Amino acid sequence: MNTHVDPLLQYPIGKFEWIEHPSRKEIKTAISTLEEFPLILKSTVSDLSKDILLNKYRPDAWNIAQVVHHIADSHMHSYLRIKHALLEENPHIKDYHEVDWAKTEDASNIDLSYSLDLIKALHKRWSLFLKSLSTEEIMKTYFHPERNKKYTIGTTVLIYAWHCDHHLAHIYNAIRKGY
Length: 179
Hints:
Elements: H1 7-10, H2 24-45, H3 50-53, H4 64-87, H5 98-101, H6 105-108, H7 113-131, H8 135-138, E1 141-144, E2 149-152, H9 153-176
Antiparallel strand pairs: 1-2
Helix pairs in contact: 2-7, 2-9, 4-7, 4-9
């Protein structure tokens, strides 16, 4: 098995560039990405055939259906982490093993309707919530024990805006090329 992963297939838009203290403009742009993402995702995947939904974006990777379900799982985790950061003092968050989550029946099914509905509702709440935060609240943190790192709410918002675009690029690659 080839252990080399083509970085352009793994990170088609490049790796996330860490911004410790994002500006209000950067946060506003990221929130807009989170707001618009569900519609873009749905329009991208809704009319895909079963065969295309099973395309992978690179060898030994998830297929399109798994990517969509992963987005639902990952974004739920992030939303809750941000809520904990706001309401607690630098809480330690629980990590999750996304590869294991992608193997469960609800995350490997080609029916995307329930994950698309969840992403739409979640992003609506997430966007409303994020827009209500003050500059001081955006700087509140949570601690990721597995990575031994503090994350601000503002940086996390940027990470997940990037995450939206990152996985859309994976889906586009899988539609065009498919592995």
